[in-house]
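User: Could you walk me through two proteins back to back? I'd like the raw sequence and the structure tokens for each, with a short line separating them so I can tell where one ends and the next begins.

Assistant: Of course. Protein one, sequence then structure:
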Amino acid sequence: MPSTEAELRALDRQIADLMQQKAAVQARLEREAGGARAKQMSAEVVDSNPYSRLMALKRMGIVDNYEKIRDFSVLIVGLGGIGSVAAEMLTRCGIGKLIMYDYDTVEIANMNRLFFRPEQAGMTKTAAAKQTLHSINPDVIFEEYTMDITTTANFEQLLDRMQHGGVDGKSKIDLVLSCVDNYAARTALNQACNELNQEWLESGVSEDAVSGHIQFLLPGRTACFECLPPLIVASGIDESTLKREGVCAASLPTTMGLVAAMLVQNVLKYLLGFGQVSYYLGYSAMNDFFPSDVMRPNPECSNVQCRKQQAVPEHAGWTPMVWKALGYGGKENLVVEHEDNEWGIELGGDDEAVGLGVTEAPAAAETSKLASGLSFAYDQPSTAPAAAAEEDNSASVSDADVSLEDLMGQLKSL
């Protein structure tokens, strides 16, 4: 006798419960096993060493200190099409610690993405991610939290992990990755990072699934999420035709995988100190276009903590970092600005900043000042009417100095 739909759903729930129990048992066994984590990365070139190809970056002179990646802790919020793939990439790269947040469960509809498996349907995304990632690299320390960070209690818990989630369990984390798909979660992360002066990377993919972006946010130095309307990459498609009743947002694993790769590439460059970190990097699949820009903070930002960070003297004098590539002959041909700066990294002045496409953040966003191919998601309310009102008031005050007789004379002449 064939099973009914209700019986199939019941079986799915039982399977999900068993998977959760299995994950819990595995976690307990891992804690009891203790010292299974390798003490250091080996550069030995053998088939049994998972780090040999990564450590080759050091031997080739690309990264001077790749083994230091195990000292870093990264917090990821959102384990969807970008976040889950980014978590896998960081795990394979040997990151020291991953702290993962999500409040959703794995569904069959997620199978067009690159990470989750059908048998994990019904599990929480955090438990499923930890299960898979630990099997890939048991040397990484994992923490998972199934919660909505936009609630007051959970927001406080997030702040605590940001301050004490380092590899040693005491120090602050090194970087936050925002891989969420809603405005409330982004603003919550923006607030947390502004309060703690925490560097973070934000990412996203458009509803039509053919464009995406990453953005590196430095509190008080680059525009925060509330300084300006979010940037979008022009796709050349009429957006009025995208949203239709009964049609969900599109999802392409290729676009999400590419954005996740851009995200993690910049994580590695920032943490390990090689190459040029992108402050804003967009992607349009329709013409393989990669616009970039640097967004300055808005002095009139609505976020109080952002304005406080802008007032910090060290932040006020900040200029975008400009990386100089090695010469053909290696380090010998590199012009080093400082003796202890073997990578040729320097803080660019006005000339270098222009080369990066720096966009100053005015009180009202001006699309004309953006890099080619970028636009704001919506128009920011202008402060011009308020200024005009002040001018009108000042004019009224000056008129009040005119004598009553003169005013009567002006009226009679009309």
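----
Protein two, same layout:
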Amino acid sequence: MPGTTRSGARGTTGTARGRRVRAHLVGIGGGHPDQITVQAVAKLREVDVFLVADKGSSVGDLAQARAEILRRHVPGEPTVIQVPDPERDRKPGDYGTAVLDWHDARARAYEEVLAQLDPSSTIGFLVWGDPALYDSTIRVVERLGIDFDVTPGISSVSMLAAAHRLVLNRIGGPIVITTGRALLDDVKAGADNVVVMLDGHLTCRSLVGDGRWSIHWGANLGTDDEQLVAGPLDDCIGEIEQVRAQLKAEHGWVMDTYLLRR
């Protein structure tokens, strides 16, 4: 934001500096139109142009979900620009550097589009879940040097708890929210009540056989294809693997989150 120095904004693009372009980053939950908050609807209706990362045909259902949200909540025919999403190194030697490089590449792609827009435009980004939780959009938009605001959305963590009718924390106890990449290190450090996100490899399989873990798992939460599995980890892991594989085969993608407890 203007006048603010952000230590994490590596490689900030410069040509957008001084623009009057403003961006709304709007959390849209799991993609169902009913999950959009009243505040989010108001922000969507202020947008002149929506910028959407184009991840290819394999995630067509996600594009349809975004389109349905706009159809339901934004009058008329909103302008949507598909921006090709840069490839990310999935097997980097340095994970942190690879992610920062990807953020820079995304920012450059958006900057090319901004250069062609009316400088007084309000642009919009539809962000899955909540923009503040394991999502890169805020970091990418910071690099553009434009003013922006953030509207929270319903996160997959909240949807998981609601779907399973859970209180995430034990009485007076902590809850760790982590990634599949970090799960085993967190468990080794003593975490025993853990929400896991971004785990495309079901790292929890490494804990099978311990006998002390339970799991509450959810995939494509908040959509018509939502799937839930709960019980002892040792007993449930096979069903979770099967359901997950079926969802990916049918839709080309799967977004899952789970709670592990010991």
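The chain has two domains: 22-154, 157-261.

Let me know if you want the two compared in more detail.
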